Amino acid sequence: MAGTLGGILQNAMEMFVADIWLTDKERNLPITLYTLVLVAGVTLGPVFGAIAKELSWRWVFYRQEAQYYYLAGLVRIPGSHKQPVERQGLHFRRFSQVYAINYGFSDAASGLTQSALFIGEVIGFFACLPQNKYYQQSTSNNPVEAGSPVPEARLPLSIPASLLGLAGGLFWYGWSSYPHIHWILPTVGLALVGFGIMVIVNTVDLYITDAYAKYAGSAIAAVALGENIFAAWLPLAANSMYSVLGFQWASSLLGFVGLCLTFAPIGLLFKGESVRRRSKYITEASYTS
Known about the structure:
- This protein is an all-alpha fold.
- The protein is built from 12 helices and no strands.
- It is globular and about 60 Å long.
């Protein structure tokens, strides 16, 4: 139930952002900030859990409930364009048994190492800012709609972020996970993964929201379906996968998945325009239509 309701809130934000900031230029910073809060919220869960470990599990949930009720009272939506929204699911999870088994870290200390992901996400946030500026400067290179940015100009940063950040970080994390190697090295791999996650999620959100402005929530829902199914089942398989394959090859398996995903932005960079032209909803989704 928590996952379902949390997914509804997460997906409704896509509609709010698209309806409040109507142009792609206005949406750049709000969506990038929202993406940082979204991924950082998931990342910092184990960190806050480690800090609050001296409390019982009930008090952890009590604190969360108090925080949610307080934030709910602050929400004031001045108006919305009543567009359809359907999206559900959770985000991704990660694993930290490397530090407990290889380095003898306590559960609390292992949770604190997850802050490396957050550091990588913050770096990714600042890397997204010049990418957003590059997108706005692409208006002169748009042969289809003169004066409008090229949607595929959102994509270049996501290629190295996927290749070197997500996939590279997972390979680094896995193959530096040996007891004789200092724990800081796999932690650097986690930071690379965090960088890749931030850039990729931000790119997807902006690219889809720009294309399906009025229907951003529904469009993001379709994109998120596969992501959320994967995210829901991965934690169930993580322990057995790492036990059977070992830290190195289990992380490498996920790294190969990330490597395959690198071809998605590359393909869209060259064929994205033709793919968008095939959608009958693109034109009517624009607020200028």
